[in-house]
Amino acid sequence: MINSQPQAAAESDPRRKSAASPTQRFPWYKPRSILGRIALWALLLGFSVLFLYPFVWLLAATFKPRQDVFDNRLIPETWVFTNYVEVWQQLPLLSWMSNSIIIALLAAGLVTISSSLVAFGFAYFRFPFRNLLFGLVLGTMMLPGAVTMIPVYLIWKELGFLGTTVPLWGANLFGSAFYIFLQRQFFLGLPRDIFEAARIDGCSYFGLFRRIALPLSIPSFIIVFIFEFQASWNNLQAPLIYLNTGSPEEYTVPLGISYAMSLFSPTSGGEADYQYVMTAALLVTLPMLILFAFGQRYFIEGLAGQGRKG
Amino acid sequence: MATAVDSPRKRRLRRPRWIKEPFNREARAGYLFILPWVIGFLVFTLGAMVYSLVISFTNYDLSTDTATPVGFSNYELLLKDPKVLTSLGNTLYYAVLSVPLEICFALLLAYLLHRIPERGAGVFRIIYYLPKMTPSVAAASIFLLLLNGNSGAINGFLGIFGIDGPQWLIDPDWMKPSIIIIGLWSVSGTMLILLAALKNVPQDLYEAAALDGAGALRQFFSVTLPMISNALFFCTIVLTIAALQVFDQAFLLFYRDTASGSPDAALFVGVYLFQQAFQQFNMGFAAAIAWLLFVIILLITVFQVRFGNKFVYYEGGR
Predict the structure, then answer these.
(1) What is the pLDDT of residue B16?
(2) Which of residues 59-88 of B touch A (CB under 8 A)?
(3) Sign of CA dihedral B234, B238, B241, B246
(4) Which of A141, B129, B130, B267 qualifies as a FRET site for A210, CA 20 to 30 Å off?
């Protein structure tokens, strides 16, 4: 499955066909010596170990008793299987997960719909100041989030949404610059003739979007959806600001883990039960790894598309 | 004769319809489609910026919800508060070190992946991308133990070479490098962008260079680097903006507990901003810090764009 997917990705996007690996098209473009080839593969494998080691180690740590968590064995000396049960009792993991899933689904769903509507507006229609406005969209991509953090907090406060999850997805109703850009690029790739033909057949403007643009751009929808799902699932700062005052049951997963790190930390009176933190960390990483297993070609395509931007 | 007939028609076809009737049905529909973004921009970008500027001239206290205008005193406080200067210094140190390291590391990984057949590259690409999928809290809790000075794996690894590793998370000198290491571990987003750029370099350039007798190294510096300078430039700007706002890892590892009293060695502007706004409730002062950060990011970005453009090769010339 893993091997077939990148090739499927290449076929779905005609621009990538010419970008097949140079080793396939130009046999001479290879490391010259056997030695060079060995070094190449050794480096690749070495880096793989580097990237995978923390995961393997994390998995091992979840099976270690408290006093062994800090050791470096990849196979625990004494196996403990109760960490998973205990962490479930110690921390409200289930409510964190369901909070995070609901927020991430809302955030990703809303941003996908709103961004593609806006993107279609910029891609298909001609109206005064269109390029100026689109320039503004691109400009906001460069705006550092730290700058609007405080006023946006106060806006949600005025609107009476503090302590609720609304601020964590509400702004997604209005689209997001990067996704608008991504979707617009996709829409611009669709042949304009089919839209003109549909217009002549009496299709409404919204119909152009719903009946033609939308079905043809499912791949870019998926890219936007899973990017935002991941961003929302991993977001620490916003829940820290908007949910931190509530009870731990209302936390999202990242806020919960941060809370657990404090709870079990010796500096704040905990008993250094890092085996629980590790187990919780593994449990919150798993959903993302599963999402990646299913959507990795979209992740990779989405980012590769970003590179073409300049 | 033929041209006299053709040209007015051509001109009419070329000219967009909206110049004649700027707010026709199509234009109105277009505005309707982009309306969500317009509202969001007016409230959450433009409105928020103006609001933030207003707040920065008040002593807005979140705990009591009161604000009185105080003129420029928040901005004067920026100059007087030693923590502002410390956090700025830390942030710049972090950005100056981490951005080039991440670019070089990502380029190395991308280049390695580029040199092997697509099949193998796919597997490695997935492995290298995994850290990017790890939530920052999970990465922080993993590295909390891996970077442990006495028993962590990183010092264990250094021990193989007889190096006595530092107390990464305790020694103030090594707190920032610790965060750089975690950043390098999840560098794969940049790697994929650079990989895409490498794949877009026309192969005939390499053929021509090889005919001219250029070796692998010469080809890399004279063909590859100029042809991907655009992507390198893009990554540098994006990574710098992100580095200047670094928050998650520093907060999780060092400033999670308000009482723990970690040294200021990893106090970044993003962290200090958060502390002032949401732990000390000094919204006015925090807004002033945010504006300082904004101006610094803007200046650095403008400088990078001006300076970087000289080194970027644009296809078609510009």
Answers:
(1) 61
(2) none
(3) negative
(4) A141
